């Protein structure tokens, strides 16, 4: 049973627009709604040290977990990233749905038992998410 949804920042929560990164408002809204029933986490390979340095527009209250590579020294696709996420959320890896746009990161998540979901855009995300959460 899924108890937490973990998202990547670059390429998932933020999309590249005109040479910069812009939050996907649809995904942020979706995560805010999902937060009523699931823990929400953010894992990123950014060199930032804090969430506000990564993106000052992101509301820290949205996340139960934030793992930023620059702050933790934990970098995807190392499996310890996903093991640490599960430990800090007090969950088993099998209870984490990990959303990323990088196949190597998803493979690492799956190796520790997380449920991987490849992000290719918000519309396909919604379609893929529904059956996964319907089993809960």
3D structure, described in words:
This protein has 136 residues and is an alpha/beta fold. The chain has one domain: 3-Layer(aba) Sandwich (Rossmann fold). The protein has six helices and seven strands, in the order βββαβαβααβαβα. It has helices at 25-34, 51-54, 69-72, 79-88, 103-111, 122-134; strands at 4-8, 14-17, 20-23, 39-44, 65-68, 96-100, 115-118. The strands form two sheets. A five-stranded parallel sheet has the order 5-4-1-6-7, sandwiched between helices. It has a two-stranded antiparallel sheet with strand order 2-3. β2 and β3 form a beta hairpin.
What does this entry show, briefly?
With 136 residues, the chain is α/β, with parallel strands linked by helices.
Shape: globular
The CATH class is: Alpha Beta
Gyration radius from CA atoms, angstroms = 14 Å
Strand residues, percent:
15-25%
Keywords:
136 residues, alpha/beta, Rossmann fold, two-stranded antiparallel ribbon
What is the topological layout?
Blueprint (H helix, E strand, L loop, with lengths): L3 E5 L5 E4 L2 E4 L1 H10 L4 E6 L6 H4 L10 E4 H4 L6 H10 L7 E5 L2 H9 L3 E4 L3 H13 L2
Parallel strand pairs: 1-4, 1-6, 4-5, 6-7
Antiparallel strand pairs: 2-3
